[in-house]
Amino acid sequence: MLPQFYPYYIYIGFIISIVISILNRKAGYILSSIFSIVFLGYGIIVRNIYTDFFIIASLVWFFSSIFSILYDNYGKWLAPLFITSILGMSIALTSNNYLDFLAGWEIMTIPAYAIIGLNKKIDYPAFTFMGFGELSTVLVLSGFLYAYDTTGTIEFVKLYTIIPLIISTFGFIIKMGIFPFFVTEWLPIAHGNSPANSSAILSASMTLVALYGIVKMTLLSPISPIFGYIIMSIGGFSVFFGALYAYVSNHVKGLPAFSTIENNGAILASIGAYMIAPNSVIGDFALFTTITYAFAHSLAKTGIFLISGSVEGEDFDSIKVIRNKIGEIGGIFLTSSMSGLLPNIGGVATWSLLETLFMESYALHSVLSSVPIIAGSIIAMGEGFATAAMVKFISYTQIFKGFRGNNTKIVIPSIVGIIVLLFGSITYFLYPGFVGGDESLGMLNGFIIFSKISSTQTFGGISPFYVLVLIIIFSLVTLGIFGKPKVRRSEVWNNGVRPKEQYSSFAFANNIRMMLAKLLRTKISPNGLEVSSDIFWEIMYFIAKQYTKFSRLFAITYMNSNITWYMIYMIIAFLIVTILVVIL
């Protein structure tokens, strides 16, 4: 049993790393990786319901810190800011009360703002990040204040009203870039304009802290199926639009940033599934699905952002790539996991989420039974776009572009890719109570994950380990029978005109641009990249302009130093506040 103050030793370790990094960046990153492993050990020893969050975060920090030793050429301030953000995340994850969580939340956010601002010639990405980050903080703080008002304590204790959960959840999903907040593209703008090592922790572990906050508040609050349906629907739309915009993105870090929105939407949908679960069996399966998806997203997204840091440039068509077999193999594992393909952990997570939604649609006997199956269908369509987006990413960063050579930076994301594959085959420990076997199929006990509608009724099952074994066996048999594939290359004839040898990333998604022309509008960004504009952002901008005009007109007409109107305004405001206080 660890002493209660043990996390403070970890905080001190990260603080020392920050100080050392000012003097020597590499030494600071080495210390950061060491204390990330210490945090991993702490998570394993603690063994509570939040242990998996500690493990996930520590792995992200460790690999990002190791990669930074080879990557950081951004001056003296990136390293201390990077480690300070990690310090904030560690405080938030290990907090026992609302104040500690908020302190960690802000310590996590402010250095990220500085990282984005210090390393870009344009300033709007940093201000965009900070604006939405502080809006998130205001909502989270409001939810925590309401919880304090109802319980009389700042400790995380059982709540008897769902209002703190609702308010804080909307604060958390802003940080996750969830629909409708992603339509302003703040998360891709911010993550796409920060260095790759910082993008990795922003996308993989900063959003993980937000997920941790939602899960913690959910487990402390009474169950509300109606709110569950709402966030399930929000999650489903986020998956679809996040994957769609990832597919049409030509930015080497913007694409995985939109993919982060897609993954976070899926995680939010699984939390909604937990809230509406008709029984504890499906509820437990939904909660385990949330954890599995968090593992899949955080690990694979870390590797993908680190791959983006191993290339030079931002536009897929103009990046400089030094590729090798190690990078290709690791990249394929990472992107296939993000595509929801077995036997990677991403495949297990996607299967679990769809199983959960379809089980609930089958088990719920109400008018709202259609919501899970509609959400599942939307998520399935989004996974199709996600697969195309990942094919695009790996094709232009590792497989078909650039020249072969030694690239030491690609080793770290390749190791992460192998871990993602292996984690998929050992995900059984994430599903206690849902693991078994089938002797009739020759599958040993402990190698099948069963989805269950009740303790006695099985809905489906999957065995990622056997899938991996079968892939290896069939591949070896095919290779033994047919041998190594022989590739024949021929000259391209284009009516005497020299063909363009490279298929552009913009053309890769033109089919969708044409089919969804009303939704996806193409424009040229200030740095010359071809990007798809966001019709939702344009609508919000229009509404904001109209509101500004209305406010100005209202101020000129009624707030013009006329004491009568001031008195009327104060009386109305007082009545509204009084009514709200009575209702709430």
Summarize the structure.
Keywords: Membrane, Transmembrane, Transmembrane helix. Residues 95-319 form the NADH:quinone oxidoreductase/Mrp antiporter transmembrane domain. With 584 residues, the chain is mainly alpha-helical.
Structure write-up:
The chain has 4 domains: 1-218, no CATH class; 223-486, no CATH class; 503-533, no CATH class; 539-583, no CATH class. Helices cover 68% and strands 6% of the residues. It has helices spanning 6-23, 25-46, 51-71, 78-93, 98-118, 124-151, 163-175, 186-192, 196-220, 225-248, 254-276, 280-309, 325-338, 345-363, 370-399, 411-425, 464-482, 505-508, 510-515, 535-558, 563-583, and strands at 322-323, 403-404, 435-438, 443-452, 458-462, 520-524, 530-534. The protein has a 3-stranded antiparallel beta sheet with strand order 3-4-5. Strands 1-2 form a two-stranded parallel sheet. The protein is globular, with a radius of gyration of 25 Å. Residues 95-319 form the NADH:quinone oxidoreductase/Mrp antiporter transmembrane domain. Keywords: Membrane, Transmembrane, Transmembrane helix. This is NADH:quinone oxidoreductase/Mrp antiporter transmembrane domain-containing protein. InterPro entries: CPA3_Na-H_Antiporter_A (IPR050616), ND/Mrp_TM (IPR001750).
